[in-house]
Amino acid sequence: MKRCTVTIINETGLHARPANQFVQASKNFTSDITIKKGDASVDAKSILGVLTLGAGKGSEIIIEANGEDEEKAVEALAELIESGFKE
């Protein structure tokens, strides 16, 4: 299992368009991917799950992946968040 902690830096947080970008990027990997915020843990490939996290600007989340491409998945998703979703 690969894990990484990142902070949401874009103004809108992980809502609507950024959440959709995150989910679509997650679907490019075969690994099981979850996002954790506090006590909540959701499937990174589920738009509804990602939106229910309520991860706004400044929120710290943990990305976890388990599978063949876990390292690439975590790196790519962390990079997407750290780029502010190119907003």
Short description, anyone?
This protein is an alpha+beta fold and about 90 residues long. It is about 35% helix and about 25% strand.
| Tally of helical runs | 3
The first-level CATH class is given as Alpha Beta
DSSP strand tally: 4
First-last Cα distance: 30 Å
Low-confidence stretches: none
- Helix-strand pattern: EHEEHEH
Mean residue pLDDT: 95
Give the strand line-up of the largest sheet.
1-4-2-3
Query: In which range does the helix fraction lie?
Result: 25-40%
Portion in beta strands:
25-35%
- Structural class call reads alpha+beta
Specify the overall morphology: globular
The total number of structural domains is: 1
Would you write up a description of this structure?
The chain has one domain (2-86): HPr-like (Histidine-containing Protein, Chain: A, 2-Layer Sandwich). The protein starts with a strand and ends in a 5-residue tail after the last helix. The protein is an alpha+beta fold and 87 residues long. The longest helix has 13 residues, at 70-82. A hairpin with a 2-residue loop joins β2 and β3. It has three helices and four strands, in the order βαββαβα. It has a four-stranded antiparallel beta sheet. The radius of gyration is 11 Å and the shape is globular. Helix content is 34%, strand content 26%.
Task: From the structure above, extract its key features.
about 90 residues; alpha+beta; Histidine-containing Protein, Chain: A; four-stranded antiparallel beta sheet; 3 helices; about 35% helix; about 25% strand
